[in-house]
Amino acid sequence: MSEEIDPALFERAAQEFFQGMKADIVKLPARARKNRPIDLEEQIELSRSRMTTLAEQIATGEFDRNVMGRARVLAAEIGVNPDSLGDDARLLLKTLTARAELEAVRFHVRYLHDPVGEYHEHDALFRGVVPALEKPRPAHGSASPAIGITLSELTELYLTKRKDRLAERTIVESRRVFDWLAQHFGGATPVAALDKARLREFRDALIRLSAVHQGRGGLPFASRQTEVESHRVSTKTASKYWSFAQSFFSWAEREGHIEQNPTTGLRVEIAVGDESRSPEPFSNDEVRLLLNTPLYRGHKGKNLNEPGHDLARGG
């Protein structure tokens, strides 16, 4: 007979599991320095690759041995035998474990860039906000929209699927807007729960962005907004940011992740005289990420997204 487990117990265990992994990451540099220097670029590349893998696993419900091993450790910490659980409970356990690892890897990337900066969790579960859980969907479910897939999971999947079609600058700026989306709605919010009214709210928040805070990469999205119109970014800049959200939701509809694109018909009206105003500059982290791409460090032939030894030349 399958053991019945309160989902809230798994959620609390996942929160503690994330905090443990986060603590291990902070300790890691000091230990690693005793053996060999940390290759920053290599660590960031490996971490982003793992983030992509985890997002895909969470989306499909199919997990690798690493996640399944961590899930057994998590279950053991609360005295649960995974083999005694029903299918839904086992899937929930593995999904929460993968979400904890994904958030820990995100923290790792941030920590490598800025060890002393404040970290803002993408997934609301790890900010102490426990959302109502959707019933886990089976790995081989129907073709209906994936109601349970979260905003953070799907934006990562979008960037993975589109990376060969998007310019590096577009990827960097898309990540910036997706981070704001996650801060505004909560990264663990199911994408299907975001309707037109909520996306209109986000569009209006983009319009309220302060030009005074341009280039300050670590500032929370809510703190970037101002009610003083003369201090805001241009409507052209707000429209550019909004276009990244529109592209994401348009793709999500085409791929069947949502039934309707909630940004359809919503626009940012360009004010007269805004066309010549400059957009927000890249933060230091974003510039570092951009300069470490194949376009600047070396690419293979005409493929500017594949690492190699060629460099693009002007003229």
Describe the structure.
The protein is mainly α and 315 residues long. It folds into two domains: 1-140, no CATH class; 142-281, DNA polymerase, domain 1 (Orthogonal Bundle). Helices cover 52% and strands 2% of the residues. It has ten helices and two strands. It has helices at 7-35, 40-60, 65-77, 87-113, 151-162, 168-185, 196-207, 235-254, 284-291, 294-297, and strands at 299-300, 303-307. A two-stranded antiparallel sheet has the order 1-2. It is globular.
For the secondary structure, the number of strands is 2
The tally of helices reads 10
Protein structure class: mainly alpha
Q: Identify the overall geometry.
A: globular
Mean pLDDT: 79
Topology:
Elements: H1 7-35, H2 40-60, H3 65-77, H4 87-113, H5 151-162, H6 168-185, H7 196-207, H8 235-254, H9 284-291, H10 294-297, E1 299-300, E2 303-307
Antiparallel strand pairs: 1-2
Structure summary:
With 315 residues, the protein is mainly alpha-helical. It has helices at 7-35, 40-60, 65-77, 87-113, 151-162, 168-185, 196-207, 235-254, 284-291, 294-297, and strands at residues 299-300, 303-307. α2 packs across α5 (151-162), α3 packs across α4 and α5 (151-162) runs antiparallel to α6 (168-185).
Provide the descriptors you would attach to this structure in a database record.
315 residues, mainly alpha, DNA polymerase, domain 1, 2 domains, two-stranded antiparallel ribbon, 10 helices, 2 strands, 52% helix, globular
